[in-house]
TrEMBL record:
InterPro entries named in the record: AH/BAR_dom_sf, BAR_dom, BIN3/RVS161-like
Molecular function GO labels: lipid binding
Compartments (UniProt record): Cytoplasm, Cytoskeleton
Highest taxon of source: Eukaryota
Organism: Geodia barretti
Record protein name field: Bridging integrator 3
Pfam families (UniProt xref): BAR
CC terms in the record's Gene Ontology section: actin cytoskeleton; cytoplasm
Domain BAR: 9-71
BP GO terms, sorted: actin cortical patch localization; endocytosis; plasma membrane tubulation
Keywords from the named record: Cytoplasm, Cytoskeleton
Amino acid sequence: MQAKLELTHRSLSSSRADYDRIHQRMMQELPQVLDGRVSYFEHCLQAAIEARVLYYRDCVQSLSWCVEQLTGTSGVAEDHELQTTSDKLLDEIRALSIVGGSAGNVT
């Protein structure tokens, strides 16, 4: 029984030493891991923001082109002018033979 108790104490001491060694190493390396994580995600976040900026810039350019095509000018037309122009364009599209005349009024 005494031999078993001594074996258990040696095993406990060995395990405690391993734990203390691993714990000490982890406490030294964990701040380095956290600092590295922040710098890694900083680049990812920057790339995501730049992608959104490019996307919305392209959307604004496309919308500006559409407004320019509808109004015939580079300025912004009034809402009723845009509605009148778009109604005329829709009437022309409805008049095409590939659309058919029974499509009804789309508003």
